[in-house]
């Protein structure tokens, strides 16, 4: 503490805390918890976001799943190359997988909203790093997607689907969906990191969702595809998520290599997205 002289008297000068030096490490734990909690509150306080998140995959299950209701099971078994109770049972893992494609769009829109209304600027002038902001957005989007799982399972039960299987397998399936949703959330946030345009997330989502959804095993077996679509399906994480869940729902077995692929996909998207966001995330 320094001193200063006023009218011949000596008074101590107050000590002013200096901001962290550029590049100095600041623990991000409390910032992460606070921002992630904010993402959860924004999700569950907005009924329209929850309604859209739940209703969209439910409509796929209700309308698309019922489109084969009058087809004999023997014909469906031949078409789908497996024995099933109904097409809805076959479709459920695929619908949950494809729904994880779009949840990242909501995280991107949330980020753009924070930029345009000044919240992002107020956060980034604090010691909170861009990587922390990016991670909380991605996790918030993935968490939002998990709301669909119990709702879709109840809906499938209402359509006559019956489930068996080890709880460990079901836990693995949920974890696989988390990896898929988190990976795509990281991807969407990375490609919109420098954007402040409301339309960008929707345009990118529409451009990516349809090819990845149809060029996967989510709706039909990839073995029915032409060669060029089969090639895409081999590298499509939606295919591995759908196959992993379908093995559990339909056959009561799991190929854990699919879970490993989804974990690798999430890790690659996290690392790449963090690097992109740390450089290009703008506060304007």
Write a brief caption for the model.
The radius of gyration is 24 Å and the shape is elongated.
Structural overview:
A two-stranded antiparallel ribbon has the order 1-2. With 284 residues, the protein is mainly α. The chain has one domain (28-280). 69% of the residues lie in helices and 3% in strands. It has 12 helices and 2 strands, in the order ββαααααααααααα. The model is unreliable at 14-25 (pLDDT under 50).
What is the secondary structure topology, with strand pairs?
Blueprint: E1 3-6, E2 9-12, H1 29-44, H2 47-64, H3 73-80, H4 87-116, H5 119-124, H6 130-146, H7 148-158, H8 167-191, H9 199-214, H10 227-234, H11 237-251, H12 256-280
How does the major sheet shape up? 2 strands, antiparallel
Distance between the termini: 38 Å
Order of helices and strands: EEHHHHHHHHHHHH
What is the oligomeric state here? single chain
Q: What's the total number of strands?
A: 2
Rg calculated over all Cα atoms: 24 Å
Spatial strand order of the main sheet: 1-2
By helix and strand content, what is the structural category? mainly alpha
β-strand percent reads under 5%
> Which spans have pLDDT < 50 for at least 5 consecutive residues?
14-25
Q: Tell me roughly what share of residues is in helical segments.
A: 55-70%
Shape: elongated
């Amino acid at each position: 503490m320094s001193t200063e002289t006023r009218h011949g008297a000596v008074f101590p000068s107050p000590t002013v805390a200096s901001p962290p030096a550029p590049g100095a490490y600041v623990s991000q734990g409390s910032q992460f918890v606070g921002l992630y909690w904010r993402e959860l509150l924004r999700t569950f306080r907005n009924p329209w976001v929850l309604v859209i998140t739940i209703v969209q995959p439910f409509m796929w299950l209700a309308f698309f799943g019922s489109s084969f209701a009058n087809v004999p099971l023997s014909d469906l078994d031949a078409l789908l190359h497996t024995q099933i109770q109904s097409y809805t049972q076959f479709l459920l893992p695929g619908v949950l997988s494809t729904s994880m494609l779009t949840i990242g769009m909501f995280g991107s829109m949330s980020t753009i909203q924070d930029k345009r209304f000044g919240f992002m600027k107020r956060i980034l002038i604090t010691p909170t790093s861009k990587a922390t902001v990016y991670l909380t957005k991605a996790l918030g989007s993935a968490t939002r997607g998990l709301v669909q799982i119990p709702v879709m399972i109840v809906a499938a039960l209402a359509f006559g689907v019956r489930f068996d299987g080890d709880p460990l397998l079901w836990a693995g399936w949920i974890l696989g969906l988390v990896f898929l949703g988190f990976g795509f959330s990281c991807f969407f946030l990375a490609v919109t990191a420098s954007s402040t345009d409301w339309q960008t997330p929707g345009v990118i989502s529409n451009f990516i969702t349809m090819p990845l959804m149809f060029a996967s095993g989510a709706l039909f077996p990839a073995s029915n595809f032409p060669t060029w679509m089969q090639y895409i399906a081999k590298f499509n994480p939606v295919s591995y998520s759908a196959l992993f869940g379908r093995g559990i729902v339909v056959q009561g077995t799991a190929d854990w290599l699919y879970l490993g692929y989804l974990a690798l996909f999430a890790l690659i998207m996290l690392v790449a997205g963090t690097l992109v966001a740390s450089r290009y995330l703008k506060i304007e």
